[in-house]
Specification:
The chain is mainly α and 451 residues long. It has 19 helices and two strands.
């Protein structure tokens, strides 16, 4: 604790310290009114702020790096199975001969992410059979009921999202999905959208993005996701995993460890197939929307107003649109969001000089995915286009799976585990996606205050 205080006092100017102290006093004073929303806000902001300061200290960096490396090593065990099954196709140097950089989105997802889902499903099923996960859920339920009022299952899922992806985390709470409240469903979806998986951190780091900021952003987004989710959809029902409720008695339905592993593999396989199918369909649908917008852009800005055509500097392979006509009509989803999100970047703390660049990154992330956005950020870093503050805020703001393609991933993934909830998931999916984006923007704003 003393080290955190020392870092805080030696890395912030006096005006920022005074401003931050006054802000905390106001928030804590407001929380004394016993408003549930204010409790969520207090717990989330204090947790996020403390995590940011702690992660930038010497001890914090060691702990964060160690945890991330251990999780990455554990998930990499799935490569043993995929390499046995697919041979050289599962080894990037054989899959892309001569490539010494990022192996590609299709490779990463098909031969790395999907096998991890199957492996993780088997592992979680074994933990449930042994009773380990039941103890964790019960402890988390009592702890979070005392601090924020959230249930154990939704909190466990959000916490797990720090290290595992939006499709693996629901496996931890699979037995509870069919009985979860609508507020809990939205919370686990927001948690998935607001964070990134530990397994993809290495890819972003290889692109040139700061490892410390990436790890801190993912951890900070977990409490931020709980805050945003409960403000969007307040809890009005009693959860079966709330602090005052008993856990279901029929969680374990397997006879032994082998049976548990086999059942987990089946669940993981269904999840992987649904995720892959949804990703294919949603990226294609986004391409359809981009094609329609590009046609309208050519007709309106190109033909009617005579605008010149400009090629994109960073064209994406995930979109058929490679350029736009000068004018007022957006020629792609990326441009549509980038135009509207520049003011948001400025509000996060980015100077107006670089707000357009950061707004464009936010648009890329929402319309396509964070892979493309971080790739664009890496190029901006390499070319020294933005100042350090804009780069750091961008790193935090992009740290999450909140994009339109991920809506399909989450609906397909969670509904594969709880088919009865497909309709409910579809109703709240868009709201949850924007909730996850807001949570990432909240952590970016906190980072902007403390830089």
């Amino acid at each position: 604790m003393a080290g955190v205080v020392f870092y805080f006092l030696n890395n912030l100017n006096i005006l920022t310290i005074v401003w931050w102290a006054l802000l905390l006093i106001i928030i804590i004073k407001a929380a004394l009114k016993i408003s549930r929303y204010q409790k969520y806000l207090v717990a989330g902001l204090l947790s996020s702020g403390y995590i940011w300061i702690f992660s930038h200290g010497y001890t914090g960096q060691i702990i964060f790096s160690l945890l991330s490396q251990k999780v990455k090593t554990f998930l990499a065990l799935a490569d043993l199975g995929s390499e046995f099954m697919f041979g050289n196709l599962a080894v990037s140097k054989h899959f892309f001969p001569g490539s010494d950089f990022w192996p590609g989105f299709g490779y990463q997802f098909g031969f790395k992410v999907l096998p991890v889902i199957i492996f993780f499903g088997a592992f979680m099923s074994i933990l449930y059979h042994l009773g380990v996960m039941q103890l964790i859920v019960k402890w988390m339920a009592h702890f979070m009921q005392w601090t924020m009022g959230t249930s154990g299952s939704e909190t466990l899922s959000c916490s797990a999202n720090i290290f595992v992806g939006q499709t693996e985390a629901p496996l931890l709470i699979r037995p509870f999905l069919n009985e979860m409240t609508m507020s809990e469903l939205l919370t686990i979806m927001v948690g998935g959208f607001a964070t990134i998986a530990g397994g993809v951190l290495a890819g972003y780091i290889a692109m040139g993005v700061s490892a410390t900021h990436l790890i801190a952003a993912s951890v900070m987004s977990a409490p931020a996701a709980l805050v945003v989710a409960k403000i969007i959809y307040p809890e009005t029902q009693l959860s079966k995993t709330s602090g005052d409720a008993d856990l279901p008695k029929d969680i374990i339905k397997t006879s032994n460890l082998l049976d548990a592993a086999s059942a987990g593999v089946s669940d993981g396989l269904k999840l992987a197939v649904n995720v892959g199918a949804m990703l294919i369909a949603f990226i294609a649908l986004i391409g359809l929307i981009d094609t329609i917008l590009a046609f309208a852009d050519r007709l309106i800005d190109g033909k009617v107003f005579g605008g010149a055509f400009y090629q994109y500097t960073n064209a994406s392979a995930l979109s058929p649109v490679k350029g736009e006509y000068a004018g007022f009509f957006p020629g792609s989803l990326k441009t549509f969001f980038a135009t509207g999100l520049s003011p948001l970047a400025w509000l996060m703390g980015v100077s107006w000089q670089y707000a357009g660049e950061v707004g464009n990154l936010l648009g890329i992330k929402l319309a396509l995915n964070e892979f493309v956005a971080y790739g664009s950020l890496a190029e901006l870093i390499h070319n020294n286009v933005m100042d350090e503050k804009a780069v750091v805020i961008s790193t935090y703001a992009l740290c999450g799976f909140a994009n339109f393609a991920s809506i399909g991933i989450q609906i397909g993934g969670i509904s594969a585990l709880a088919p009865k909830r497909r309709t409910d998931l579809s109703k709240i999916a868009l709201k949850a996606m924007f909730g996850g984006a807001i949570a990432s923007w909240l952590t970016a704003s906190i980072a902007g205050i403390l830089i």
